[in-house]
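Tokens for NADH-ubiquinone oxidoreductase chain L. Go.
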Amino acid sequence: MTGSLLSPLLVPVLATEGGGHPFEHISTAAAGSVIDLAWLIPVVPAISAGLLLLFGRRLGRLTSGVAITAIGFSATMATLVLLELLSHPSGDRTFVVDVAAWLDIAGFTVNWSMLVDPLSAVMLMLVTWVGLLIHVYSLGYMSHDSRYERFFAYLNLFAASMLVLVLGSSFLVLFVGWELVGLSSYLLIGFWFEKKEYAAAAKKAFVTNRIGDVGFMVAMFIVFATFGSLEFAEVLPAIGTAATGTLVAIGLLLFVGATGKSAQIPLYVWLPDAMAGPTPVSALIHAATMVTAGVYLIARTSPLYAAIPDIGLIVAWVGGATAFVAAAIACAQVDLKKILAYSTVSQLGYMFIGVGVGDYTAGVFHLLTHGFFKALLFLAAGSVMHAMADRTDIRQMGGLWRKMPITGTTSLIAVLAIAGFPFSSGFYSKEEILAAAAETAGTEALWVLGLLVAGMTAFYMVRWFLLIFTGPKRWEGVTDDAGKAVFHPHESPPSMTLPLLLLAVAAAFGGLLNTSPEDGWLHGWLGNTVEAFHHTSEIIPVSWHLPAALAVAAIGVAISIWMFRGTDAKKVQTIGVGGGLVSIARNKFYVDEFYEFFTVKVGGALARGLSRVDKGGVDGIVNGAAGVTRSFAGQARRTQTGYVRSYALGIVAGTIFLGALVAFAFIGGSV
């Protein structure tokens, strides 16, 4: 891949080790060791969440301390687990820790077991440490909220849910975490449920994810029917024993689940609306937890997708299409957080390109670097909203860098990282994904699409930064009805700026985790956990990869600077207006309206039609039969007069009738 081109430019990192195949060797953790106690990583924040929900009101402001201590414990444990794994040889880093028995029904046994390996370790580090910074940030951001205590309980619950998902040693345990993440997101997105649109956004996220979850559940049924187990350590090594058609069904159904959680076409529509939640929630969902679950699922089941590469290409193309559509929408938005939301959808598409073409390390690498710079971007957005009376229209901002130097500088670092500026974290991870697409047969066009999206990303993110932090102060002179200034921009308190500074360091230098696709540290670290990438195409020369990526990013930056540098109050009136393609993109390609038409109007009409069929057809037959019976009974009822003479007459008539029948039968027999 691009290692030969990039290596002279890059700083060497930790020595790498050879790769193997997932689950070739399962080790046993020593009793009482850090790995043996890894189950505490999700349990402690889960217990904390329960206690805060029960006793939060009594604890008052101490709830934040309890919540931060719980997630801090998990972050410390995650670090110790990583260090413990580093001390083991590369082929001896996969551990399954049984915590307790869960189900034992007719030979079907499911244990509460934790899978500790290099992949889960890096995910633990991302979830816990970024989660910890978001908890700290929330001290300042949510300080005046009336449900301060409940918010921190929900944050702990969200983190615990994601940690169960990451550590689950089977499809079923992972699915428990998967569903808990969905529940937690519902609670946090709809945290300010008094506003109807916020409650609707929470329901939209919950329902949309349930669609994907059905695919996941059916996939689990097929897995168990085929392999007799749901344990990764038993199913994935036996992939070669199953029929190709069965593997295709499992792969497609799991991907349906992934499209829900990781917001890919066609189930991406919930994620932009998730901005209804408090900004720390946006950062947690978009960077460290929920949206990464689908990518993690594909990487975890890499032996499955390696056996059905054509399905992997479907994954990659869906990712590419999602990346392009979301980037196009982001280019036309003017809402501070909506731009970042569609950016998340687009960057998730990049991750699916990586895992879809078979470079699972590249996909996980971008998952990590995206967690750094996207968490930073959302927290910076929250800092801006904190200073601008919760306004989110970037046309009303400008010139905030001088008022908010820490927020502005850290935002610039994050923008450079997501735009792929050389030697930033996003530069390395995005380039590795594009190189993998260029070197996979049948995805050369996907490489071109990825380049286009890279240029669009640079364009809309630089636009985001310029309209917020540079140019004239378009917020000056805005007054309320009493003639007082509405906006008083100021830097956020240390509890909010400290996480920005730490995340800025990660966004700037996180690329050192894998400076080369062949011999970077992350490549060696994940070598025995995910299937290795094998390039199958040489159509696009390696020497084109890096220059092409840098060129399109530079073009995007240049166009954005040319269009939006120094935007004044008059020029800003032209932003976010107009018709044509811009209008279509601004209205999100009318996808929400399309879904509403088919689900609400067409679905409602179909439901009403079926209701008529049910009432007029099914119920009509049943009610008609009952009517006939009722009519017959009514006629028969008339014979019940209550007079003895009537009954005697009836008996006599019946006797005569029976006698006549017997006589006729006798006469007929004689003849």
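The two ends are 107 Å apart (CA to CA).
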